[in-house]
Amino acid sequence: MTTNLSVPLPEMNSRWRFDWVLPVLLRPRRAFAQIIEATSGVSFTPIFLLTLSSLVRALVSGAIEEAAKASGQIQLPPGFEYYTPEQQAQFYQAASATSGPVFVYLLPAIMTIVGVLLGWLVLSWLLHLVLTMFGGRGSSQQAINVVAWALLPFVIRDVVRIVAMWSTNSLLGHPGLSGFAPTDDGMMTIYIAALLRNLDIFLLWSILLMGIGLSQSSQLRPGKAWFAILLTLIIVQLVRATPALIAAQFSDLTVIRPFF
Question: By the 8 A CB rule, do 124 and 140 touch?
């Protein structure tokens, strides 16, 4: 008599898979092989964890910012030292006008949730598109599942940042490698600082997981798959740093105090 050691189909296609968290982080090749075999969406668990950790981080940052404003202190944004004197003056004016709970808690929480969901889907579709153009045979559902689980290192990063902010009662001044940015003024310096701000060990960890999972699902040669994945992620990181330039540009605007 033969024994069937395969995982039952209902269990394989379960939407919630907390038992996959540690295997994805510690044994990614075997874990992603299971994820790729799933015939439906199995991305709820990592996206839920990432949304929760990001939301807690945003609320902790808001509490620290509110306490700082109450004591007469203002938490400066990343790259503030690279702003021109006029931009810094406009920022202080805007900070005093946007000190209500809507700006401190509600809007950051909403933007955090939207950013996690939209960023995950856009990145998944973009990677699937590029891999398909390179001859990959993976499905869009596989890409969505793989990218979701490859984002797990950012949950750990959020936990580390939450503990750091909570213990020091201050926002992180130079996350990632932003402390190595040039010290001169100018828009390019702000852009470089924003680019380095996103670069850390957790991003590299996530890229490694995406490469392992997507190279399996795309059925491409490893070298070709990794080239397509890294090219896409480099472009995404370059685009991701552009909001810092937009924020610096809007710092020149005069903000009228709202009614809330």
Answer: yes
Is 3 within the bounds of a domain?
Answer: no
Those residues with Cβ within 8 angstroms of residue 176's Cβ, 6 or more apart along the chain or in another chain: 196, 197, 198, 199, 200, 203
Q: Can you tell me whether residue 232 is helix, strand or coil?
A: helix
CB atoms within 10 A of CB 132: 16
Tokens at 150, concatenated: 């490859």
Distance separating alpha carbons of residues 245 and 187, to the nearest angstrom: 7
Containing structural domain, residue 51: 28-33+42-250
In the chain, how many domains are there? 1
Helix (H, G, I), strand (E, B) or coil at 61: helix
154, two tokens:
């950012």
Q: Hey, is 180 helix, strand or coil?
A: helix
| Cα 225 to Cα 133: distance, rounded to the nearest angstrom | 11
User: What are the pLDDT digits (tens) for 178-232?
Assistant: 566 555 666 777 777 778 888 889 999 999 999 999 999 998 998 999 999 999 9
**Is 61 exposed, middle or buried, given 0-12, 13-18 or 19+ CB atoms closer than 10 A?**
buried
The whole-angstrom separation of Cα 104 and Cα 82 is 24
Instruction: For residue 255, tell me if it sits in a domain.
Output: no
Distance of alpha carbon 122 from alpha carbon 129, whole angstroms? 10
CA distances from 151 to 119, 134, 232 (A): 11, 23, 16
- What are the CA-CA distances from residue 181 to residues 16, 171, 217 (Å)? 41, 19, 37
With respect to residue 260, please indicate whether it lies within any of the assigned structural domains: no
Q: For the segment 123-164, what is each residue's pLDDT rounded down to a tens digit? A: 999 999 999 999 999 899 999 999 999 999 999 999 999 998
Neighbours of 240 (CB within 10 A): 16
